[in-house]
Design goal:
Shape: elongated
Radius of gyration: 18 Å
Helix content: 40-55%
Order of helices and strands: EHEHEHEEHHHHHHH
Number of strands: 5
Largest sheet: 5 strands, parallel
């Protein structure tokens, strides 16, 4: 008996949802569930979803990070794919080797995406070469989940109640750079929110001192 494969698209774009709903069920022989960031969790709990596709053109990176962490924590057999992955912003913190099956940049066309999803259906990962190399370099440089000096500085600044903009001004970098450091630190220490990071830093202060 043919087993139906269930995928989910998480997007705020009805146009994209309609486009994919017209193509993917026939092209990949899958059933496509549609969700917003707010409804993803409840749908995951009620349906046998195997793959979640995030549309990063309509989802804030911080929200995507929190949703990805939820999948890692509560639905570890579910794989994730990112559409419209930004090239100009460092969003590597979203990519997790255990759960991320595919990454497609915002300039990827439908033919490239279709080809990539066919590979994903075969159990392969589809991640752009430049992004994969960058991820591998980070692993080589870092060797483990240890916090970098800059990540420690940012965590310390959180304890003083500083906003991202305050921290950016203190460290003479952009606010988006601070967000990137925060998301990476969040992943390394196993938290998904600013409050949890502050609580962690308060408990492990000796580990975050520079």
């Amino acid at each position: 008996m043919f087993k139906v494969v269930n995928w989910m698209i998480v997007s705020r774009s009805q146009l994209l949802i309609d486009l994919l709903d017209c193509r993917w069920p026939q092209e990949f022989l899958v059933k496509l569930a549609k969700a917003s960031p707010a409804t993803m969790s409840s749908l995951l709990s009620s349906q046998q979803i195997t793959l979640v596709v995030f549309d990063l053109a309509t989802i804030d990176l911080q929200q995507a990070y929190q949703l990805q962490k939820l999948i890692e924590r509560e639905h570890y057999t579910v794989k994730t794919v990112f559409l419209n992955f930004p090239k100009q912003v460092d969003a590597k913190f979203l990519v997790h080797p255990a759960t991320t099956s595919g990454v497609f940049y915002s300039d990827s066309d439908l033919a490239a995406i279709s080809s990539g999803f066919n590979e994903i259906l075969k159990g392969r990962s589809v991640i752009p070469t430049d992004l994969h190399k960058s991820l591998m370099n980070e692993v080589t440089e870092d060797e483990s989940e240890h916090l970098t000096i800059r990540e420690r500085e940012v965590l310390q600044a959180l304890l003083s109640g500083s906003t991202n903009l305050d921290i950016a001004n203190q460290l003479f970098v952009s606010e988006s750079t601070i967000k990137t450091h925060l998301y990476r630190a969040f992943r390394k220490i196993g938290v998904s929110s600013r409050g949890q990071a502050i609580a962690w830093a308060q408990t492990h202060m000796h580990e975050v001192r520079v």
